[in-house]
Structure formats: structure tokens, C-alpha cells
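Need the bound structure for (2R)-2,3-dihydroxypropanoic acid, inputs here:
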Amino acid sequence: MTTPRIFITRRIPADKLAQVRQYCQVDLWDEELPPPHQALLEHVQGVEAILCLLTDRMDAEVMDTAGPQLKVISNCAVGYDNIVVAEATRRGIPVGNTPGVLTDTTADFAFALLMAAARRVVEGDAFTRAGKWKTWGLTQLLGQDVTGATLGIIGFGRIGKGMAKRAQGFDMRVLYFDPVIQDDPYAAEVGAQNTDLDTLLRQADFVSVHTPLSKETYHLIGEEALVKMKPTATLINTARGPVVDPDALYHALKDGRISCAALDVTDPEPVPPDHPLLTLQNLIITPHIASASVETRGKMIQMSIDNLLAGLRGERLPNCVNPEVYASK
Ligand code: DGY
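Answer from helper R.:
Posting the output first, comments after.
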């Protein structure tokens, strides 16, 4: 039996690479930046497996270019909107992802953004470094209280639930909206109340987005949603950038129709350095790092390797987003 050829679309830690090399002939894109489209097409030709990141679009062209021997696509992320899963399923290719291991790390970060935006932590730091701290000021850098406020969670999956759990510690009233999960027993445990999107937007002091990106959620938070929010409200997005319409958000923040926002994800991503959003003081933007802890990223890489190796062996992936591929096998 020949050693399977695989393509890994980005630099991974040496110990993890060594692990894969025990079983595979690895073509590694040994860079910080993703392979450009043409390079991606060149490198996937004839491979049996692809280990990719959320920045690599895996569509019909990539799958066709790879060829019929492609056995598995393993995404090193829980979200998989970069993969045209229907195309993979049509070809019988299982797609792997990394659910669970990043839930707490991501919810921690979403809550950190909530706190930082509410209490103007980033502005305070910039103010101090700029030499503007002259005295203790009674009305200096006033923010919003978190304790006792209302948190609106859009998307009550694992990370949304993690937010609700954290909010308990701050005596927050928690509302959630999820088009699929309406009656979740966990909601009662953390005192979260199911509601419609409209009520959530009108009542929440903090709106935190935790929904996957899909046709239905694209620009879910746009002009129409933003006008419903309180002028004192804060928007947090750690899910996917395109769930929030960046132009509508820019105008809402600039015109003071909402108080502030904190984004770990943007549309487009990365946010261009001359994007108007970057001119705003009432906005925090971080570079999609909500799951970026040493431990969690290590677990994500390991899970994606486990998925990849299982796929190469013809075994069921430990975490598969399109299990229907096994129905016909
Ligand atoms: C994911 O895994 O989908 C996250 O966005 C990475 O942090």
C-alpha cells in the first residue's frame, strides 16, 4: 500500500506535523498566510486528504481539481462555512470539524469583549498611553454596568449557552433567540428565556452573536436590526463576520444609535486597514482570536488530525458534519 498524499494548508506545530508524517506524505503550505487560490488548486491535485483552515474555501472546483481519490476534508475549526458541504456530500467525502474543545475559550473571550466594551478598557488604555490621564475624573470614560444588565444571545448552541452560564455570575437577565433551538432544558438551568429576535434586540443591553453563517444569518444584524437596539446597547460578534452588516454597523455606531460594539470577526476578514469602522472610538476589533489559547488551539489541531487520519483509513470521522455520507456506504 502506498503512503497517502495529503495537503495541509498552513504551518502547524512540529510535533503535530511529525504525527501526520508517520502515516502520510505531507505537502505542507509552510506559511502564515493562506495559499492563494491558484496555489491551492495546484497543491490539492491528486491528494487523498486536505487539512484546511477556515480561511480556505473548499468548493466544487477544489474538490474536482483534487480528483476522485479525495477521501476526506478536515477543517481545523468548528465553523465550516468555508466548505461547500453539499458538494463534498455529493462526492461522498466526509468533512470533519472541531466542536466542543473551543466552547469555553470562545465564550470566555466573548465575555471579555463584552466587559471591555462596556467598561471602555481599550479606550482607557489608549487614553493613559497618550498622556491624557491628568486626574481622577468624575465623568471620565464612563461606561455601562454589566451586573444586572440584560444579555441577548443570538444562537443558543454550545458557545451561546457558555455565554448564558457566564452571565449568571453577573446576575444578568438572559434572553436568547435561536431559530432552531426553542425549548432547551439548559435554558432553565441558567435562567435564560427564549424570545423572538425583535424582543431580544429591543430589550437587551448587550447583544452577543453566536450563530453560524448561513444564507439565513447573512447580515442578520443590519440596518433593520440595529435601529431596534437601545442607544445604550453594545453589540458583540465572535461568530462569523458576515452575520453583521459592516456598513449598517458603521452608521449605527457613528450616529450613536447604539453605544458600542466589539467584533472578533469582520466582513471582509481581515478588515482592511482603511475600513471606516477603524476610525471609530466606540468599537473594539480583534483579529478572530476568540479560540486562540495555547491549549485550545492544540486540541483543535489534534482533532483535525484525528478526523483526517480516520478519513484516510476509511473509518467514520470522530467529528463529521455530513454523516449522511456514511448512509450509502
Ligand atoms: C471556529 O473554529 O469556527 C472559530 O471561528 C475559530 O476560532
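Comments: The first strand starts at residue 5 and ends at 8. The CA atoms of residues 123 and 281 lie 7 Å apart.
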